[in-house]
Design goal:
heterodimer, A: 524 residues, alpha+beta, Porin, 19-stranded antiparallel sheet, four-stranded antiparallel sheet, 28 strands, B: 551 residues, mainly beta, seven-stranded antiparallel sheet, 7 helices, elongated
Amino acid sequence: MKKILVNLSILITCLSYGQQDLTLYYMENVPQNLYLNPAFKPKAKVNIGLPGISSLYFDHLNTTFTPANLFDTRDGTTYLAIDEFKTKIKNNNYLGASVRLDLFSLGFQIKKNYFSFNITENIFTRMNFSRGFLELPLYGNANFAEHNGELDFSNTGINFSHYREFGVGWQRQFSDKLSLGAKVKFLVGKSNVWTKINTIQLQTNPNNYDWKLNGEIDVRSSGFDTASDINNGQVVDYLLNNSNLGGAIDLGITYQLSNKINLNASLVDVGFINWKSNNFNVGSSEASFTFTGINLTEYVNAPDSVSNDSLNAAVQRLQVAFEEEVGYSQNNEAYIKMLMARIHFGGTYQLFDGKNSSGKAGILFQTEFYNQLLRPSLTLSYNQSVGRWLNTSISYSMVNGGYNNLGLGLSLNLGPIQVYAITDNLFAGNLTAFNDNGTTQFAYPTNSHKTHIHAGVNLTIGRAKRDRDRDGVSDEIDTCPDIFGLEKFNGCPDTDGDGIEDSQDNCPEIPGGVNGCPDTELKK
Amino acid sequence: MKKTIKFLILLLLLSSCIKEEIELQKVNSDPFDPSFALPIGNVTMPLSRLTNQSNRFLMVNPTTGLLEFVFQSESVDLRLSDFFNIANQSVSSSTSMSATEVSAFNIVPTGTTYSFSSSNAEAFTVPASEQIDSILIKNGSLSIQVSSSYSHDISIVLTIPSLIKSGRIYTDTIPLTYTGTTPITQVINLSLSGYKIDLTDGGTTNNTLRFNFNTTLTKGAAIATTAESISFNSGFVLSEIDIVHGYFGNRTITESDTVEYDIFKNSFGGSVSLANPRIELELFNSTGVTFDAQFTSISAPDNTVNQNIGGPGLTSFPTITKANFRGDSTITNHTIDNSNTSPTITDVLNEMPSKLAFTSSVELNPGGITKNFFSEDSRLWANTKFLVPLDGRADGFELNDTNSTKLQDVLGIDSSDADNLNKLTLRLLVTNGIPVSTSIQAYFLDDNNNVLDSLFVAGSQEILEAGTVNFSVPTSDVNYGRVTSPGKKTVDVILTKEQYKGLLANNQAKILYSAKFNTIENAALKNVKFFPQDYIDIKVSAKVDLTLSLN
């Protein structure tokens, strides 16, 4: 126990920057939780995602500042707290947002198999600003007392992708304990910007103010010529561009360890897109370049009539020297960009399972792969169903270096219509409005580094009736609702498998033909 | 169940309120102080790249390898019109019958012709004591007015042996018809272009025109008398002369010229001593006249101590020999330097004059009577080079210059931007490969030349530290006084916000630059030398300290 607690505390201190649908994961009523673990089996036999409104996902991430720590009020005046902001800057500072929209989704059960289809639009943006990048406007590059003239811009960059996903999923209950699932996704990329490598550092010499740039940079982009079509109103051309193809796979498993304990794990978004349409890539080799200024000798000595030409020539020579020294290159080669894969691992514990409600506690470890690092999060949740019409979930997550992420999920089943709304950070709804002459221009979460919301409307048909012991016989007709049994015995067990229900079997644990007992027993 | 729902609803309500509002227009900020530094550029200035100007250029002496300023000008430019200017002139002549001829004429019957001849030599007026043999006319005219007092028809054959064109002597027949009154007049006009006026009268003399008359009268009713005659008035207009032959006499012509030099332009103080300046003269003579020339004076009129360069160098010119024929020319060279002057050129230059006045005299035919020629394209002229080797010493030599420069235009920072400026630092990293240390100061002036501020607080600041100079070899060695290793110095030129805003508020419009130069070891009277490879390298970097806020 002690070892577990120590390991847990170590893990907690390493937590940062995990994300995405932590509360949804254990909301069994919402079929969209298949996107997180394809081994989950939806409650309804048929689930239809209404086009455009079945799954609207938005998240936003800012690891560095919030209005609460960026602004303060003194003597009735609002101040941008620069000094406070400086203390919040980390070595890597993330700012991003993601949007996912299901254009269409469908799932249906055939015997023990569940098949699902979805078309989903994904837009993912994440920008990373290094400490040096943010400190540059605040300190400048010549604040030698503060940073000795060294600014580290490495890892500053952007990761932006817009792609469309066509998914085909399959889930099967192999036994009363084991369920497996998989989804294959065909991906069509629309546009991408990717800072693949950035190890740039700037050193300013305190004696002569020369700049020395070290490092390497590699930035790829794709699809932006067609993206400009959007500006020209040619949205259809952009959306129908299908030159950038890729694929991904999701895998999942659930295992019922006991009546109360379920373990589960999944690996999602393991895939890539091959970007090759309207590519523009720029980069350098690992190099060092020292900028000592422009050689103005020719310019100073040139006659006035040609001095501007001389200056232009000097600048051009500098540019050429720079490009040669750093190995600058640009091309339109295709490149492969991996998706940001995630691992889920967790378990639930059935706290109670009554006639009209049930409660389940869950724990979820989620890790995403980003920038060649694992970025884990930990979520504790409590999920309660009320009858068949209400499913709620409350979660607490340690994520993004924040420990105040309280999540809430609600799904209402109004006949076949299911409406759900989920957030991983309830207090992100605590907003600060930024006004211009009294008119709100935009609102921003006051205290939260992460905003998440996922909502939608589904059609759910053939939702399974309550079956506490999960023996396939609904509680309504199960004579033994709390004991796993057989359908032919109305849900009651036959432990020894002798064809005689336990309640009628004199020897319930020994197979026998005479009132459930073997002949040998009678002879005795 | 109900409690659960109520709790959830409350939670939702509490979490989804806009609790804070921030008015963007009213946000202030704490100030923050970024500093930005960047290298701007560098300039390497080898002395060989000092710019040439229209009347001054820099060259390398092929013997010593030293840099020399060369001021070049043309002096003493004498042409034909300076020596020989023939006014338009008139020559008169006449012919008449003697008493015997009159008697003989009077007894011949009416209608009978009677002829008589005469030949006259007339003087051709020259401006001075020239003895002219011939003049070839390029452009000119001759007008002969003939007037007869004879009451008879006359035909005159006029021949002027002095007037020759293409080998042919001028001759003309002039009819004079008596119509009852006298005098009978006739005007003959002749273009003289291409004519040669031979004033030697057949090689026997000079300045002489010969006229030959052969007159034929046709006897009329009147009686002739000895009082009657025929007169000829010749008006010569010599617009352009091609060439004149003869002897132009022995006389002296004086020329004066003043040449300005910008070596010491904008000098303001201190002292300079330049070793071995010299004046090199090239005298070109394409005339057929021998000359003697000299400078009667070379002076610096602004000097107070040594105004005049003296000594034999000014007068000991070699004789300027004449050209032998048209198209030929001779070159005569003469050098004036410290070895043939006293006071020397150095003595005069030490007072840093801005100009020198030259007065020269030229004597024609110093050797006596001889054959000369002077054509329209021949001339006597002198190419004067004033050479100042960059070899010497300077002690506090100060140059000042003022130009209209607004600091705001240069920096692009107006008053509102200046509120964010704490300090601007220009860092100069100077590598000085010349044997001169330089201190500078800059004064910021308004339109009325009032001093508003200065760049450095206390006087000038040395920005060029002189290079190390070789004084270990003999002074005659070409490398004596030569830089062996450059001096290095880092100087920060600082402009604070208060300074800058003060200049803007007071309408700074001009900058007065003051630079003071000292050659190394000038107190020990050691000269230093400047070679084309000597250089100055200045690297400029800038650092801007700002204070920013949203207030």
